[in-house]
Specification:
The chain is α+β, with helices and mostly antiparallel strands. About 40% of the residues lie in helices and about 10% in strands. It contains six helices and four strands.
Length: about 200
C-alpha cells in the first residue's frame, strides 16, 4: 500500500472518530406537547339575565279591600206603618224606655244608658220625631201622678237634648197612672209602670 493511500485512510478514520461523538449528541428538537387546559375547555353556562318584576299595583281606594262585616242600621229597615215601626224599634233596641224608682224623677245609671242608645239612633234617623210619655204606678193621687209623669218626661227630654238630639224633634206628655203597662197590683207591676216611654212619630 502506498504511503499516500495510508495517509488518506488514516485521515478518514480520524475524521470519522472526531465526527462520530458530535453526531451522537446531536438530537432533533422535540416539540412540547401541550396538554389541553381542562378549566378553559369546560363549557361555562351563560350568565342568566335578570328579569324585572313589576311592582304590585298601588292601592288607590282602601274601600276596595275593606268590607263591612255588620250591616248598618237604617230607617229603611223599619216598617212604613208608624205603629209597626215603633214595635220594631223597641224590639231591636233602637229606642229604649227609661225606668224610675218610686216617687222619683231622677235618671239612674240604667236609664241614662238606655237613653244614650236611643239618642245615638235618633241622631242617625232624623226623619223621626219623638214623643216622650211620662207614666207612674197607681199609688198616689191622680193629680200628683200626672205632675210626676210630667217631670219624668221632661227630664228625659232634657237628657236627650244634652246628647245632641234636636229639642224641636221632642214633645212630652204625662199620662200619670192612667195607662199602666202592667195591670197588676204588686211591686213587679209597679216597677214596669214607672217609666218614660219613647214613641216614634213623624
Amino acid at each position: 500500500m502506498s504511503k499516500a493511500l495510508k495517509g488518506f485512510l488514516c485521515g478518514l478514520v480520524l475524521v470519522a472518530l472526531i465526527a462520530a461523538p458530535a453526531c451522537r449528541h446531536k438530537t432533533t428538537p422535540v416539540k412540547p406537547v401541550t396538554q389541553p387546559d381542562t378549566a378553559a375547555s369546560m363549557t361555562v353556562p351563560p350568565v342568566p339575565t335578570t328579569t324585572t318584576v313589576a311592582p304590585p299595583p298601588a292601592i288607590t281606594q282602601p274601600s276596595d279591600f275593606v268590607t263591612e262585616t255588620a250591616p248598618r242600621v237604617t230607617s229603611e229597615e223599619l216598617s212604613t206603618n208608624i205603629e209597626e215601626a215603633n214595635r220594631q224599634a223597641q224590639l231591636r233596641g233602637f229606642i229604649k224606655d227609661a225606668f224610675f224608682g218610686y216617687d222619683e224623677a231622677a235618671l239612674g245609671a240604667d236609664a241614662q244608658s238606655a237613653l244614650t242608645d236611643s239618642a245615638n239612633w235618633l241622631k242617625k234617623n232624623s226623619q223621626y220625631n219623638l214623643l216622650v210619655e211620662g207614666h207612674c204606678d197607681e199609688r198616689g193621687t191622680e193629680q200628683y201622678n200626672l205632675a210626676l209623669g210630667d217631670r219624668r218626661a221632661n227630664i228625659v227630654k232634657q237628657f236627650l237634648v244634652t246628647l245632641g238630639v234636636d229639642a224641636g224633634r221632642i214633645r212630652t206628655v204625662s199620662y200619670g197612672e192612667e195607662r199602666p203597662f202592667d195591670p197588676g197590683h204588686d211591686e213587679a207591676a209597679w216597677a214596669k209602670n214607672r217609666r218614660a216611654h219613647l214613641v216614634l212619630v213623624k
